[in-house]
Specification:
There is one protein chain. The protein has helices at 24-32, 38-47, 53-62, 66-70, 79-90, 93-104, 108-118, and strands spanning 72-74, 77-78. By secondary structure, the chain is mainly α. β1 and β2 (77-78) form a beta hairpin. α1 (24-32) runs antiparallel to α2 (38-47) and α1 (24-32) packs parallel to α3 (53-62). The longest helix is centred in the middle third of the chain and has 12 residues, at 79-90.
Length: 131
């Protein structure tokens, strides 16, 4: 008889929502509510930034959520950082302005850490590419 696995089980997430069919407000609500697929919703909203100022504004606003600042994608990169990086990468005047404002809302140590990660002295010099 096999030994029982004593590791805790994660809850099932269910099927991923069709975020590409959602409007910006629906995606923002999904992210704000800490939905299990909030990362997927944030990435969809981020994909719209270059062509949609409303998406850029919402992404900048959402980057201030403590839940996104605590959620790590990998290493030290949080969902909030990924939002700011997406704003920078879109390279529109509105998205860059939103990125600077969102970056400014981070704690001083987090700003220093993000500049180090981006390998720049000031946020205005950051021009990340998203592939």
């Amino acid at each position: 008889m096999p030994a029982e696995d004593s590791r805790p089980r994660l809850p099932r997430r269910g099927p991923a929502p069709a975020v590409d069919a959602m409007d910006n407000a629906e995606l923002a609500r999904m992210i704000e509510s800490e939905h299990p697929y909030r990362g997927k919703a944030l990435f969809e909203l981020s994909d719209r930034i270059a062509h949609d100022d409303d998406a850029a504004t919402k992404v900048a606003m959402l980057s201030r959520l403590s839940s996104l600042r605590k959620a790590r994608l990998f290493d030290r990169v949080s969902l909030a950082w990924s939002a700011i990086i997406a704003l920078l990468a879109a390279e529109t005047p509105h998205s860059r302005a939103c990125a600077y404002e969102a970056f400014g809302a981070l704690e001083l140590e987090e700003r220093k850490d993000m500049l180090d990660y981006l390998e720049v002295e000031v946020i205005e010099d950051a021009h990340p590419r998203i592939g």
